[in-house]
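From the methods appendix. Each design record in this collection lists the tokenized structure first, followed by the designed amino acid sequence. Records were kept in a plain field format so they could be parsed without special tools. The example shown here is representative of the layout used throughout.

RECORD:
FOLD TOKENS (158 positions):
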């Protein structure tokens, strides 16, 4: 059986319309997926004004050198029930006791107001926040103060 050459299928306006609609449907679907990924993974800006940040760069480096001179180390902030916990040690790995620790928790995309958390320490150098932090992804700006010395940290908690 050979096909009859007189009965060729023709390309009509319906075919052209279907191809155009299918093309734009794929483009819109890909854009929606990419927009969803972009919004869900956006961690916010590092600085609001890069020019001003460039003017402060050398002072930030000096502060970082001073912090390293303390020799303090801190663990990654973890969730402890509804609160946050972290451990801070001195250069000789002994617990850093009687430090004042304060953290400002900011939502990466600004969906919630910043939350200020103060920490209470124990004899092992473990500090637990007094306040609770809601579930979700939060950027933490942590300040540790002990006998006039300061250390600033930036971490994320999920």
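DESIGN:
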């Amino acid at each position: 059986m050979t096909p009859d050459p007189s009965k060729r299928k023709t390309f009509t306006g319906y075919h052209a319309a279907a191809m155009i609609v299918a093309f734009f449907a794929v483009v819109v679907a890909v854009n929606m997926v990419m927009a969803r990924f972009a919004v869900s993974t956006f961690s916010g800006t590092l600085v609001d004004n890069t020019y001003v940040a460039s003017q402060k760069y050398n002072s930030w480096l000096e502060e970082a050198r001073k912090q390293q001179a303390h020799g303090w180390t801190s663990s990654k902030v973890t969730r402890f029930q509804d609160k946050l916990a972290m451990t801070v040690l001195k250069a000789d790995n002994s617990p850093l006791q009687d430090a004042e620790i304060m953290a400002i928790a900011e939502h990466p995309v600004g969906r919630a107001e910043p939350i200020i958390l103060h920490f209470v320490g124990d004899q092992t150098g473990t500090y637990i926040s007094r306040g609770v932090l809601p579930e979700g992804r939060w950027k933490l700006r942590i300040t540790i103060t002990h006998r006039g010395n300061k250390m600033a940290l930036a971490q994320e908690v999920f």
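APPENDIX NOTE: The first strand starts at residue 73 and ends at 74.
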